[in-house]
Design goal:
The protein is an alpha/beta fold and about 210 residues long. It has six helices and eleven strands. The strands form two sheets. A nine-stranded mixed beta sheet has the order 3-1-2-4-5-6-7-8-11. It has a two-stranded antiparallel sheet with strand order 9-10.
């Protein structure tokens, strides 16, 4: 039976805004952020209120896009891969010539329409990633929410990527920068290190932008 695709599907929209990418390989890239609601994980340190959203139609999202100039779109969350009718949104944006990036926790494969995949596996859910995770991405960003050395090494083996990053974990306004760079050094100095790890921080918070 052929699936009937809704003409104007609705999406769980947390927020939509234009800014600069603040972290990872594309730091500084002008982009429109489309943040979608709900997640299949619940990290205690998450800084996104992904359960507060409104239902917004595809046509309204397209209307809002006309207010922005950036031609890069970052689909983020929450977890965008669990969004109903995501393929319709992505197909429409691609048809309009946008470059599509996605930020995902990596438990599900990234849609084929995505041009740049940034995956952030969560060490606090290591058991889930032992069972399944994304096979490849453009970058891997792991939050150092404790001792993540073994988890990071395992993810480097499971996920083929061009770039690998550790990010400090921010809790109550404090980032564990020292411990994060200490772990980067240990990862890179390991005799069997297969990838070079770098530091990624949320520079948009330092710059005072979204």
């Amino acid at each position: 039976m052929t699936e009937i695709r809704p003409a104007d599907p609705q999406y769980r929209l947390v927020e939509m805004f234009e800014s600069l990418q603040g972290e990872g390989y594309n730091t500084g890239m002008p982009a429109v952020f489309i943040r979608l609601g709900k997640c299949n994980l619940a990290c205690s340190w998450c800084d996104t209120d992904y359960l507060t959203f409104e239902m917004v139609s595809l046509s309204e999202i397209l209307g809002r896009l006309k207010n922005y100039t950036a031609r890069n779109i970052i689909i983020t969350g929450g977890e965008p891969t669990i969004q109903p009718h995501l393929d319709i949104l992505l197909d429409t944006l691609k048809a309009k010539g946008y470059r599509l990036c996605m930020e995902t926790n990596g438990l599900n494969p990234a849609p084929p329409q995505i041009d740049f995949v940034a995956t952030s596996p969560k060490a606090c859910y290591a058991a889930k990633y032992n069972k399944q995770c994304i096979a490849e991405a453009d970058e891997v960003r792991i939050v150092a929410d404790g001792d993540v050395l073994d988890f990071a090494a395992a993810m480097a083996q499971k996920i083929r990527a061009k770039h690998y990053y550790l990010s400090p974990c921010e809790q109550e306004g404090v980032m564990n920068i020292y411990d994060t760079i200490r772990q980067i050094g240990l990862l890179n100095s390991s005799p069997d290190a297969s990838e070079h790890w770098q530091l990624s921080v949320q520079t948009h918070k330092w710059a005072g932008i979204e």
